[in-house]
Design goal:
With about 280 residues, the protein is α+β, with helices and mostly antiparallel strands. About 10% of the residues lie in helices and about 20% in strands. The protein is globular.
């Protein structure tokens, strides 16, 4: 169910909301955002439990269709009937590591890319030409090392050790999430990430400006994710509760056109219809 026509990656908390939100892109740039999954006219037609089935391309907005894979073979990944992802831990890793590739729009073929700076991993998430580096291999949370249903990168050990030499502690995993919703948002350790933290402050400002947009609470008593519609996602510490998003997967299906044929009844009742034999000479 993770192969073929692509996968819609849905923020679980928003499945039954007025605007189901998905992992996607905006109309410009490479920034990965929380975007509405469907065209407005489709949302009222969604049946309860829609996430357990499939979606068709015509229903969804552009830049939301992803190909997941290839994946590493250490461990196992399975989509359950609920759309949730079940991870079996491997011998060496918390679960398979996969590439996430965008399948539509001008940036089709680009890979989901977590920030890869050695001195402080994490930051705004983009799509980028596929390089097959560690920051483009992502895993789903197994509920042990990382939150169940999360999507995360695994920080290389040499990077963790290098950071430890500076007196800082780097968590081994960084999860996709939103800024200014949890209680452990990152600070600038070395004053070397001006561009990122300028961008991050923009995220904080946007969140503050939109804080009255949706007052209902989301999971765990945090403000609803609907307040973050269209906002740039970030890679944050997986322990940053409230910021980390839990996802479900909904496969795309292709509706096949019904074959056009004449029934036997129509063929015999209308004398003007000529039926060619399969034995006709060419």
């Amino acid at each position: 169910s993770l192969e073929g026509h692509g996968t819609l990656i849905v923020a679980k908390e928003t499945i039954n909301s007025s605007y189901p939100l998905c992992l996607g892109l905006g109309s410009i740039e490479n920034k990965v955002r929380l975007v509405p999954c469907f065209h407005d006219e489709v949302i009222p037609t969604l049946a309860p439990g829609w996430e357990t089935g499939g979606v068709i391309i015509e229903e969804v907005r552009n830049h939301t269709r992803w190909s997941i894979g290839p994946c590493s073979s250490d461990g196992n990944l399975k989509r359950l009937e609920t759309g949730e992802v079940q991870i079996t831990r491997g011998y060496y890793t918390p679960g398979p590591r996969c590439m996430f590739t965008l399948m539509d729009g001008l940036r089709a073929g680009r890979c989901l890319d977590g920030e890869s700076l050695d001195n402080q991993p994490g930051g705004p998430v983009h799509v980028f030409p596929c390089t097959r580096r560690w920051n483009q291999f992502l895993s789903f949370g197994n509920g042990i090392e990382t939150p169940a249903g999360s999507i995360h990168t695994t920080i290389p050990l040499h990077t963790i050790n290098r950071i430890a030499e500076t007196g800082k502690e780097q968590e081994p995993y960084m999860c996709l999430g939103v800024a200014h919703r949890g209680n452990q948002d990152e600070g600038d350790w070395f004053n070397e990430r001006v561009d990122f933290f300028n961008s991050y402050q923009d995220l904080v400002k946007e969140a503050e400006e939109n804080k009255t947009l949706v007052e209902d609470q989301g999971q765990g008593g945090y403000r609803s994710l609907l307040n973050w519609i269209g906002m740039h996602l970030m890679a944050t510490q997986c322990s940053n509760k409230g910021a980390v998003i839990e996802w479900v997967l909904v496969p795309f299906i292709v509706e096949e056109d019904e074959p056009e044929f004449l029934s036997n009844e129509n063929a015999t009742s209308d004398p003007q219809v000529e039926v060619q034999s399969d034995d006709e000479e060419l």
